[in-house]
UniProtKB/TrEMBL annotation:
InterPro entries: AFP_Neu5c_C_sf, Aldolase_TIM, PseI-like, PseI/NeuA/B-like_N, Pseudaminic_synth_PseI, SAF, SAF_AFP_Neu5Ac, SAF_PseI/NeuA/NeuB. This is Pseudaminic acid synthase. Coiled coil: none annotated. It comes from the Bacteria. Pfam families: NeuB, SAF. CDD domains: SAF_NeuB_like. Residues 294-349 form the AFP-like domain. GO terms for biological process: carbohydrate biosynthetic process. PROSITE patterns: AFP_LIKE. PANTHER family: N-ACETYLNEURAMINATE SYNTHASE, PSEUDAMINIC ACID SYNTHASE.
Length: 349
């Protein structure tokens, strides 16, 4: 699978994971806070910062009852309407340019998730390097075709989608011009539990659709994301905030700066550790071979003495005969005087 270029970064199995900090609505309707989030994300070492580009009116309609009212007892947003939630969470479009500018000044890649065609047109004016499709829009074929027509790399979250739905989505994207695609395993609960994450899907997802894969992770902590790298994740997305205590629509399942920094460090560490299938000592291990166990003379011997379990033993270091030869040498005589601590060799028997 060929590498994907996003901004100054290459994405692929031979590169460090591409880490995305998702701001979402954690700016709490403050541009100053949004810029502070950008600075904290850059300091934590992420590769990219992602926004969401919509308005309440491009997401839904203003109705406070029925299907438009959130009454799920397990939802973080229970007791409000979809319209009011999106009013609270959206990032004003006029903020995008200063946020993108600050990202670029700090060396991280800014991009966004568009939720309708007008958002794609707006983001094209800002010269984004790639696009993200959210799980809830991964069956919106019209939107996917619009994004694909830009020719930019597309990252698609696969939350809730069946294989048949994903097949339709991927076909639509590729037929409309997408040549660089990443599919993110995602569990669309907030927060998500490790038990519902199913990381073993990652390699299967890549094999099915012949593309790079990654993880949009809504679990708490960094363990699930770190583990995903060992299963082939090349992209990891995590929601990000300055402090969960500050509140905000997504703060409860978002990472704080110290956690994000640790995620960057540990995913890089796992990536470096994958290597290749290898047996036998590595170059770095060869010096340690001398510390293996081997057969040594453990009592002073005179010429003609017979070897017994009392005068030879399997000990460290490893300069003597391999320990597998113990039964072969027991009962044999030494040909000369041998001092205690001498490695046993065939030449003295």
């Amino acid at each position: 699978m060929k590498d994907i270029q996003i901004g100054h970064r290459l994405i692929g199995q031979t590169h460090e994971p591409f880490i995305i900090a998702e701001m979402s609505g954690n700016h709490n309707q403050s541009l100053e806070r949004a810029l502070e989030i950008v600075e904290a994300a850059a300091a934590a070492g992420v590769d990219a910062l992602k926004l969401q580009t919509y308005t309440a009116d491009t997401m839904t309609i203003d109705i406070n009852s029925g299907d438009f009212w959130i009454d799920d007892p397990n939802s973080l947003w229970k007791g409000t309407s979809l319209y009011k939630l999106y009013q609270e969470a959206y990032t004003p479009w006029e903020w995008h340019e200063p946020i993108f500018k600050r990202c670029r000044e700090l060396g991280i890649i800014p991009f966004s998730t568009p939720f309708d065609e007008t958002a794609v047109d707006f983001l094209e004016q800002l010269q984004v390097d790639c696009y993200k499709i959210a799980s809830f829009e991964n069956t919106d074929i019209t939107l996917i075709r619009k994004v694909a027509s830009t020719g930019k790399p597309i990252i698609i979250s696969t939350g809730m989608a069946s294989i048949a739905e994903l097949d339709e989505t991927v076909r639509a994207a590729r037929e409309a011009g997408c040549e660089n695609l990443v599919l993110l395993k995602c569990t669309s609960t907030y927060p998500a539990s490790p038990e519902n994450t199913n990381l073993l899907t990652l390699p299967h997802l890549g094999e099915l659709f012949k593309c790079h894969v990654g993880l949009s992770d809504h679990t708490m902590g960094i363990g699930v994301s770190v583990g995903s790298v060992a299963l082939g994740a090349t992209v990891i997305e995590k929601h990000f905030t300055l402090s969960r205590a500050d509140g905000g629509v997504d703060s409860a399942f978002s990472m704080e700066p110290d956690e994000m920094k640790m995620l960057v460090i540990e995913t890089k560490r796992v990536s470096k550790s994958l290597g290749q299938v290898h047996f036998g000592p590595t170059e770095a291990e060869k010096v340690s071979l001398k510390h293996r166990r081997s057969l040594y003379v453990t009592q002073d011997l005179k010429q003609g003495d017979i070897l017994t379990k009392e005068n030879i033993k399997s000990i460290r270091p490893g300069a003597g005969l391999p320990t597998k030869n113990l039964e072969l040498v027991l009962g044999r005589k030494v040909t000369s005087d041998v001092a205690r601590g001498t490695p046993l060799t065939w030449e003295i028997l």
